[in-house]
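Inputs:
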Amino acid sequence: MTHPFLESTDDESPAIELTWWWVGPTDTTLYHDLVRWIASDRSPRRAKSTWEIIHSEGPIPSLPRSSGKQPGVVIWVIPETGIADLIKRIGEVRSTRPGYHHLTAGLASPNEQRFLTEVGTRGHVQHSKDWPKIANIVTPHPNK
Amino acid sequence: MLAWLGVDEEITAPIAAAIIPDPVMWEDGATHRGHLTRRLHVPAAPSSPDQTTTQEQTRATATNPSSPVREATAHFVKLAARADEETETATTNGPLILGCLGDFTDDADVPWTLWFGEQGVRESAKLDEQIAKFRARQSRRANMLLAGTSPASRQLRSRVELACRIRCHLSITGPNGCGANDLASMMHHASSPNEALVCLDASLMDAELLEAYASPVVAELRENQHTTGTLILDRLGEMPTDGQSRLREWLEMWPARLRLIGILDSESTASSPLIEPLADAMQLYPVEIPDLSERADDLELMTSGLLRSTRFSRETLDLLRSYPWPGQWEELTAAIQFANEMATGERIGREHLPLAIRSYRPSQTQTALVDTNGCQTTIGPRPPSPRDFKLESLDATLAEYEASLIARAMEAADGNKAEAARRLGISRSRLLRKLSELS
């Protein structure tokens, strides 16, 4: 299922420049604030570019092999029951589908955040207002 | 909650807003797990020897903004409903928020059974198990990267073995995808087991982001005088300068307690070098991972180790040896995993490898001509063949040729531009335009 938050008004649909995969429930403040942030003029999305968010139905997103151009972004929602299973799933996806940026979102203790960086996630969003912090992660840093 | 925080009286609104957990934790009515950490500035130790309460300190900050400040942590936990029933404070109907100010609560100190019930304890144990499995897999991959009998492998292995026994700043240099991350984690866990670790992509870390993402290690260093921590910083050479400055502050603050493991890309084109203390730290114990193409003789051992079997056919092994591996270790491990999944029979053949590898043909051209005439052998440059034709850039070559023709025409015409234009077969104005472009 694709979120229609940025539907094109042109006759021809523009190419999708960045795809996000959201793994977890979407009826959360975190998700809605992510959509709001991307749609706002404070996000790194250029005004004329189109990004899409694909909701993963299962616990593991079905990612295509990375083309190597603009890496997709996978956001894993921290389950309320703990991150043990999440770590396993992230490890599997990273080994079978390399080339994606992996982020986590939700409440995680400092100890859990350490483990998540160890398994290869590039950033963690603890709270909705932290979304702007990942701007540099999903798009190249301007200083580079 | 304020009583639990040790605050008895009313506090100023800005401080209250800073230490009260965000409403997102309870607004949707669902039970949440996890902790929410807030940092706020409170004054440094008061000049009077009397004990000063946190509340008084925060007031002092509000009234005197110029006073020296230090950071403290307000740490909150929202309890699930079931846990509420078990606690003494189960009188409230809504979710219960607990917090502590000034102390960092490590997960090991969280009373899991009391706060999260039996399920919480099981989850905690499961997490430990998964992390142990992940680290074991990572360590096994790193050991496979070190496998081999070539001089390059022996040298790398001896450097890594020593790094596993000492705790100091390390730098790992190698081409992109060379497996430095696995190696860095292995060296950290071997040299400093149980020490807090955060792995970051340094190229993305400006000062603000670094402060946020390194906080699981840095917060402990700030609040506990005896803890140590390690940051593994991938692509350190491309780190923004303000992020480097923040790292320098931390290194100066905790020279012995904070350890850096920097991963540097040997093919990086980063123009600015690392700032002074970081560069020094990275030169302390450098480990260089050689290019995989230099270790062709080790590939058989590596692939057998990755697969835990010797199922590769001779032809496949020859191909693996001749392939240049531009993606380095990561490309090799991905290719082996792919081939293992594709192969259904006993042997793994050429056809099971990824297309880019199985279609690779090593260049047959020789760089020198060996001519044997009777008892005399001459080795010299090979005569050019039509197959050798290659230009760096057609436009650049044409421009260069055009410039040489114009120079010859000008020389032949003794500098007379009208005559030179006639000799070139172009108009004088066109020649003048071209001379202007050349100058």
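Chain A touches chain B through 42 residues (CB under 8 Å). Flag for discussion at group meeting.
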